[in-house]
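Forwarding these from the shared drive since the link keeps breaking.
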Amino acid sequence: MVNLRDIRNRISSVNNTQQITKAMKMVAAAKLRKAQNRMTSMRPFANKMKEVVSRLVSSSDSSNKLLRKPETTDRVLMIVVGSDKGLCGGFNNNLFKVVEIYITKHLSDLRDSGKLDLITLGKKPTAYFKKRNYKVVKSFPGFFDNLNYDDTAAIMEDALDGFTSETYDKIIIGYNEFKTVIAQNRIINQVLPVDTESLKKDENKDDSLSTTDYIYEPDSDAILDEILPVHLIMQLWKAVLESNASEQGARMAAMDNATENAKELEEELTLKYNQARQSAITTEISEIVSGAQALEES
């Protein structure tokens, strides 16, 4: 016979779990609104920054070290933006799979020779890639506990110094781009070397830029030297904000699914409990009737 007490305990446990997942969903929803506000307020600035850089690159003959084109790729730095916490579905693992596929396809020789360096933002990517013997030169567990621009800029400035000193010939960022609350795009973005041809194409496509003439003071090269590092830092800041919003959306969706699953399981256990209770009552009644009949016959 099914133990009614065990079923009651399971129902109580599932109910407690449902309350926790519901609360976590509400917290994730609140954090998602904040993350979306930061992300959407950043996008116009980043887009306008790209427009300005596009025009400056198209009209400049600057010898800026950030515009150098390495003849060979001898060492690569990849920045992987994940999360500090779990319970967000396949948010991290889906990105890590895409990163590993990219590395296997394009950077396998550098990885095998120890010339692929990784910087990981968040506890999850740090644990994942260290466990698989990738060369993680810097890790930032707890990065998203106090998300701010200055820390992000410092990380990117170190990476830019590595490129200008020719320590690295290529810098890549892997992150989740926010698409909807329940969907993310896994992005592998090459930040350096700067794709000047792509920037020039973007500049030519923009009618407002092509028809507007600018006067630069002191000159376009000097302005490019100042604004190009800011543009590259914004690429990482954009990736961090997009990833943060994606994480909260993924966690909200995961907790919603968990709450619904807990509700269904609670209903199934309640039905099972009622059936077992009814069976026990029927058995007791049958035993009483049988006992009464035995007394009458005796």
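-- next protein --
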Amino acid sequence: MKMAVFSAQAYDKRFLEEANRQQPLAGGVALQFHVEALSLQSVMLAKDCDAVCVFVNDQLGAEVLGQLRELGVRAVLLRCAGFNQLDVAAAARLGLFVARVPAYSPEAVAEHALALVLTLNRHTHRAYARVREGNFALDGLLGSNLHGKTVGIVGLGKIGMAAVRIFAGFGCTILGTDPSVPAEFAAVGQAVPLPELLAASDIVSLHCPLLEQTYHMIDRAALAAMKPGAMLVNTSRGALIDTCAIIDALKARQLGALAIDVYEQESELFFHDHSADIINDDVFQRLLTFPNVLVTGHQGFFTIEAMREIARTTMDNLACHAAGRSCPNAVPGTGARGNTIE
């Protein structure tokens, strides 16, 4: 079997090759790594491959999927949980096997959310830069205790519940909202509607998928409903928030602080070195001018444990396809089973 890996970085190669050695398929798997993202311009790189492996910013629209099918690709493996970039109906119509990594290390993303909160709250990023310049003044570095604050968790899946446990451990009051609240949440927090959560929370952390109903869920109305001076954290998907509305809320001092690991237009920026380039995204550049905004480049998932689990699950999904059996990680709605490779 041959699999083309798109948007491949050195760390992807390291962990996928490790998983390939540890979980060998009959006949072996030849991995071809491409730094290019999957798109109509790069799809020909998948020629003669049985499968493609893609990440969050690869394009999986109907036209790309059709091209993959014509090239002989029969399996699309997402090394991530979200699949908002996938045309599910087209994948089902084309009979493509599509599987994802629904859970790899919930604690990795939840811990990164906490790191963003602590960094922004206690200004440790600014203190680090000051001390390296010999400036030990504390003016401008005043923070507040996390203990006793009310934290609102939007989305109570595995990552959201990991965040709940972490913030509860810091002595925070926990509010949560989700269409399906887990039974175990009642022991640590109170389930409330989103408007009530926004109005009462000192910190709001987003842990939900990008769906039609969650697109720009944090818009101007939601920001106006938030507790004045609250902190907003997004480690899920960039399009959960309306960035232009966020900028206006920051300028008006309604939003006290923003920490994001994702950005709606990140596909042109993240996972690459642009330090010698001029970044033409004016909205993103405007965000960076605020001293109360912290941005990281989609690294919430990036731990050794998570990368190993992502690679292992990806190879397990490929094994399902090769064996022609159903896959527990198949993307809902695709309805595809594995196709035995002759």
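Residues 106-295 form a domain with the Rossmann fold fold (CATH 3.40.50.720). The chain is about 35% helix and 15% strand.

- D.
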